[in-house]
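Exercise: predict the structure of this protein bound to pyridoxal-5'-phosphate.
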Amino acid sequence: MNHEMCKKLVNEDDKVLSSCFRMPYYPLAVKRSYGSIVEDIDGNSFIDLFSSASSLNAGHCHPKVVEAIIEQSKKFTHYSPVYSYNEPLVELANKLCDITPGNYKKRVAFGLSGSDANDGMIKLARYYTGRSKIVSFIQAYHGSTYGSMSLSAISLNMRRKIGPMLPDIYHIPYPDCYRCKFGQKEDTCSLECLKQFETAMEYYIPAEEIAAVIIEPVAGDAGLVVPPKKYMEGLYEICKANGILFVSEEVQQGLGRTGKWFGIEHFGIEPDIVIIAKSLASGLPLSAIVGREEIMQSWQAPVHAFTTAGNPVCCSAAVATLKVIEEENLIEHTREMGEYVKERLNLIKDKYTLIGDVRGLGLSIGVDLVKDRVTKERNKEAASKICYRCWEKGLILAFFANNVLRIQPPLIIKKEELDTAIDIIEGAISDFLAGDIPDEILRIAKGW
Ligand SMILES: Cc1ncc(COP(=O)(O)O)c(C=O)c1O
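Solution:
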């Protein structure tokens, strides 16, 4: 593959763009994309296992989504919902109330990104409960505004030099059964991680001052960690017993990604609030806070009002995206493909001790690369080099938590494309183990 034009563009970009946002894996400069395929400006084509960080569940440039964008753009591109009303906004809000879990009356507040929706959740939970404290999780990523950064605890780079963060936000350990922080195994586990929360409430976080707990149903940036059902049930019970709102953060895991509309449905829990963004409008800027009516009607304008939120083009794209997910049975397809991918990856795991764990729900699958299966030390070098080699072979693949390959393709991906993608990953693993991937790429492939 030739990457000359891409590299040239990266050099130009380097001279003009700020250092605040990019975490590169390789010089990918996109020219066009369709389905599960991305083409770069050198004319190379790639199978996409990343979906622009899980923001293209309905695939790249789905014709029905593109048509909805064009049709709405011809009518009017914007008139702020802060001062006016529009049809796509109401249609989308009704649809979101229908598909989110919970058999009760709901309402919706729109924004532009996962970050602002999480930020809004803090305001909403404080407003409704009259309490100030919010509980979140260690290694969570919830966004880049001050509020959502304060909810996050993923890296010191998101904390250094920018404090103080919002007050009264606490972080507890996420239930990680593969790397249990309490040294337990499945048969010895008595939910020590949940007890840690109970201990915190006993000594320094008064339960009656906690407004909300915000949790991802699968901890994405922590490395796609799937919590045990009994943990989620226990956490929910604590919330209900203490008047604490249970917030399911579905920015990355929602909209069919896990093989259900929303990840929290795997646990049979009806959250008070659901946070949605990324894939909602197939990558156009749109987020939504969906919650019980009495909560959503408790705060007063303009506490969460953005001029361009709920833009009609974005809302039309979102209505079309949700229709595609439904009409093309993408949720069922995701479940089937997810099982298939895990099966294939587990066969590869049998061959290479580099793979410590394969886990996930639906098409949200993590491959945990370790230096040693006993110590489970994270193998960042392997993750960086393997992702880079995959890119050289025509596959877009990223990693998080330093060592977990992130398999989150568009949900429309075909089985044959997944087979090709997994073959490329296996080839890259064997190249890595043979020492065939040069160290110099570690300067480029940084990830998070
Ligand atoms: C779980 C989760 N929450 C929130 C966000 C922030 O969303 P956005 O980048 O749209 O602000 C992200 C983005 O990566 C995410 O993965």
